[in-house]
TrEMBL record:
Name of the gene encoding the protein in the UniProt record: grpE
CDD domains associated with the record: GrpE (cd00446)
Any one Pfam family match given in the protein's UniProt record, by short name: GrpE
Protein name: Protein GrpE
Compartment(s) where it occurs, according to its Swiss-Prot or TrEMBL record: Cytoplasm
Family matches, as Gene3D superfamilies: 3.90.20.20, Head domain of nucleotide exchange factor GrpE
A GO biological-process term: protein folding
Keywords for this protein: Chaperone, Cytoplasm, Stress response
Family: Belongs to the GrpE family.
Protein function: Participates actively in the response to hyperosmotic and heat shock by preventing the aggregation of stress-denatured proteins, in association with DnaK and GrpE. It is the nucleotide exchange factor for DnaK and may function as a thermosensor. Unfolded proteins bind initially to DnaJ; upon interaction with the DnaJ-bound protein, DnaK hydrolyzes its bound ATP, resulting in the formation of a stable complex. GrpE releases ADP from DnaK; ATP binding to DnaK triggers the release of the substrate protein, thus completing the reaction cycle.
Region annotation Disordered: where it falls in the sequence: 1-45
Chain segments annotated as transmembrane: none
UniProt organism field: Komagataeibacter melaceti
Length: 201
């Protein structure tokens, strides 16, 4: 059998397609979407980044201011809730002081005293304890001033006297306690303040 030497022009054309050089001086360009060369800056991108930074700064400032407004409003509402009864509380502590005066007006307990007097004293003492418990549960407190340094924020001096037992500026006697409502002064204590020992001569 003779060898097939027939020439195939289609095979030659296919083989030459992959190695054919570009014609007309055309050069391959960069791929579409390739990153710009190092150091190149897009002005529009820089402008947008600056706008975003400025808007973020404004938003953070506005958010901080809104938080301050919310905190102030919360404090004002809380103050209004706690101190709205201030006038009523002053009248209530007046009743508490009257109970204390009623107890002080009774004679000291003695053995063999009249049973009616004993029961009256016990009834007033029980009422006072209960009443003071109610006041404390509602934020009203009595602060005893006797023996403490005079404090113009809590005490009102009704008199000054010389005393060998109390240093000058010390509350030597308290007619009424200082009353506070949730830590805020409601009514000052009525006190007598020591002037210190009387000087000889």
């Amino acid at each position: 059998m003779s060898e097939n030497t027939e020439h195939n022009p289609f095979a030659d054309a296919a083989a030459g397609e992959g190695t054919q050089a570009p014609t007309g001086g055309e050069q391959p360009g960069p791929a579409q979407g390739a990153a710009p060369e190092d150091g190149a800056t897009n002005p529009r991108i820089a402008e947008l980044e600056a706008e975003v930074s400025a808007m973020r700064d404004k938003w953070m400032r506005a958010e901080a201011e809104m938080q301050n407004v919310r905190n102030r409003a919360k404090r004002e509402v809380e103050d209004a809730r706690q101190y709205a009864v201030q006038k009523f509380a002053k009248d209530v502590v007046e009743a508490a002081e009257n109970l204390k005066r009623a107890l002080a007006s009774l004679p000291q307990a003695t053995e063999g005293e009249d049973n009616i007097l004993t029961r009256m004293r016990e009834g007033i003492e029980s009422t006072e304890r209960s009443f003071m418990g109610i006041l404390e549960r509602n934020g009203i407190s009595a602060v005893d001033a006797k023996g403490k340094p005079f404090d113009a924020n809590l005490h009102q001096a009704m008199a000054e006297q010389h005393s060998d037992e109390h240093a000058a500026g010390t509350v030597m006697e308290s007619w009424t306690p200082a009353w506070t409502l949730h830590g805020r002064l409601l009514k000052p204590a009525m006190v007598v303040v020591s002037k210190g020992p009387a000087q000889a001569g």
